[in-house]
Each structure stands twice: as structure tokens, then as C-alpha cells.
Amino acid sequence: MKLYDMVKAPNPRRVRIFLAEKGVEVPRQEVDIPGGENLSPAYLAINPRGLVPTLLLEDGRTLDESMAICRYFDVLHPEPNLFGRTAWEQAEVEQLQRQMEFEGLFSIAAAFRNSAEAYATRGAAGTMPATPSIPGLTERGLLLARHWLDRLEQRLEGREFVAIDRFTVADITAYVCLDFAKWVNLRTGPEHPNINAFHARMKARPSSSA
To answer: Which Gene Ontology terms cover its molecular function (predicted)?
Structure first.
């Protein structure tokens, strides 16, 4: 088993934090995404979609979606529970996890991919056909990301965690998104006391450095 990784990228980081919380160690190999290593014949032989993270199993099968990888390890290592136990908890964690992805991660990614020179012709990750950047999507992505921050600030009012009353994958995604936002110069300020306190709590967890 091997995890193909990129230390700086947000999605691989979500998996690393998840594994650290589970206390699971998996051999990792760094992939140079800006340099195009993920599009090399050698890497495409492992994952034809050219994505990271990619989990290569012993039998040659692969998983390349962050939450799918986390789900896989959650079955193998059910404790500590990070997806919820009861029907309500699981639904609430899934709901908030998706909100963090769709409203936060995807908005920031749109702003980043449409403004970074290295991705001028790579509008989508992996082997998707060349797609030129659209400057207007940078502005729109930033606007949507700011709306997400406002919603997250409200969500965290009186709460220690994003979804339920303990740490879950929804917190991992929210925390990673907040750091990813810095890539597009989007930062919280004094108007976000709940987010700032949440970020400090997440950063204090040993898994945050994974």
C-alpha cells in the first residue's frame, strides 16, 4: 500500500490529517504536481486520472478521492470515530463536510486555478483537457469564499466543532480550507472571532502538522 501525495495541496492534506487522527501510518510518495509529474506516463500507469491523493492498494486498485480514501481507512480502523455514529450524526457530518467542500474548498480552488500562472491552461486537476484560465472566475471564487467565511463564522457561534459535538472530518475540511484560502490572499480578521478560535484549536491538535 502506498499513498501518492503532495505536501502543499489541500486534498492530500485532508487525508494525512485523517490518518494522523486514526494513528495509521501509510508509506507516502511525493508527486510534483506543478512540474507535471502527475501527467507523466509512469504516474498515469498508476492512476490514469493523474490525481493526488492516490491510494495504491496491494492488489493494484486505486482510490483518488480524498473522502473515499478516508472512508476506506475508517472501515479498517473505526476508532476514533470521525464520520458520526448515529443516523443523525452521520447525516450531519456528511452535510457539513459537503458544505465545507462546495462552499469553501471549491470556491477557493476556482480562485486559485484561474489566477496561478502554473495553471494557466489547466483549469481542472489531472488529465482533464487543457482549459484556459478565466479571470472572472477568480473574482467570483473569492466572493463565494468570503460568503463561506461568513457562514462558517455564524455556524461556529457557540460551537467548538463544525458538525457535531466532537472532532470529525467536517472539521478537517474546514481547517484545511482556511489554510488553503491563504493561497489566494484570503484571510480572516477580527470580524471572525469564532473562526479564529476554531483555527487555533485545530492547529493545536498534533494531527495538524501531518
So the answer is: transferase activity
Which residue's entry shows cell 467536517?
Answer: 170
The CATH code for residues 2-76 is 3.40.30.10
* Residue 115 vs residues 56, 164, 186: alpha-carbon distances, Å: 32, 35, 13
108 neighbors 186 (Cβ within 8 angstroms): yes
What are the structural domain ranges in the chain? 2-76, 87-209
Q: How many residues does the chain have?
A: 210
This prediction has a pTM of: 0.96
- Report whether CATH 1.20.1050.10 matches the domain 87-209: yes
Convert the pLDDT of each residue in 24-55 to its tens digit: 999 999 999 988 899 999 999 999 999 999 99
Letter for the amino acid at 152?
Answer: L
Under 8 Å between Cβ of 91 and 162? no
- Cβ–Cβ contacts within 10 Å for residue 139, how many? 14
